[in-house]
Amino acid sequence: MAVWQHAADFRYQSQVSTWIFGIAYRVALNSLRRHKRWFVAFAGKSTEPVVDAHRQLEERDWLAEGLRRLPDNQRSSLLLIYQWGHSIEQVAAMAKCAAGTVKARSFSRSR
Description:
By secondary structure, this protein is an all-alpha fold. It folds into 2 domains: about 1-45; about 65-110, Arc Repressor Mutant, subunit A. It has 6 helices and no strands. The model has no long low-confidence stretch (mean pLDDT about 80).
């Protein structure tokens, strides 16, 4: 629904799929924030997730395999941004490329 409501906001500066993913990401984050506030207000319980060790191991294995299949420059961009917390500009400086290139590596699918 959000994509339909904001279709006129699309500026053709990225792929449509990247733009839609960005909307979905923000909608999901907002939903999680609202759910957390509701849970704290009405349930009065901890918002700490229940830890399932088997599931965590399985997810870590899937993530490692997915990262392994990416090209080196795309994998390193993702790790530097999401695991190590560097900004896109910092990664661009490290890789000696444009920030747009780092963004493309971070958000595009591997072929």
